[in-house]
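4.2 Preliminary Data

To establish feasibility before requesting continued support, the project team ran the inverse folding procedure on a target of 92 residues. The structure was first converted into the token representation described in Section 3, and no sequence information of any kind was made available to the design step. The complete token record follows.
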């Protein structure tokens, strides 16, 4: 799958699971909703106090598996390492 195809898949399928590493070394699995921003980057939204946010601040590495509810065998999985982190305030 090309990067363009992966972005297209994410743009059309918003269900995902993100795995981050806890400070003690264990894994934290979190269901997330994903999308594509205007720059073509994958984005998720989360509360500032969520464990996944705390984990990413300590170790900016995650695995993200985006899947289709209609056809669960279709999925995109990527390891994200040291990606630029952008904290954006929630919008009303």
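Position-by-position output of the design step:
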């Amino acid at each position: 799958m090309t990067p363009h195809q992966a972005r297209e898949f994410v743009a059309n399928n918003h269900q995902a699971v993100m795995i981050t590493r806890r400070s003690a070394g264990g894994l934290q699995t979190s269901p997330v909703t994903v999308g594509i921003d205007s720059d073509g980057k994958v984005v998720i939204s989360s509360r500032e106090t969520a464990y996944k946010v705390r984990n990413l601040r300590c170790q900016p590495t995650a695995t993200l598996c985006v899947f289709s509810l209609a056809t669960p065998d279709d999925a995109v999985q990527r390891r994200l390492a040291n990606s630029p982190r952008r904290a954006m305030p929630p919008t009303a």
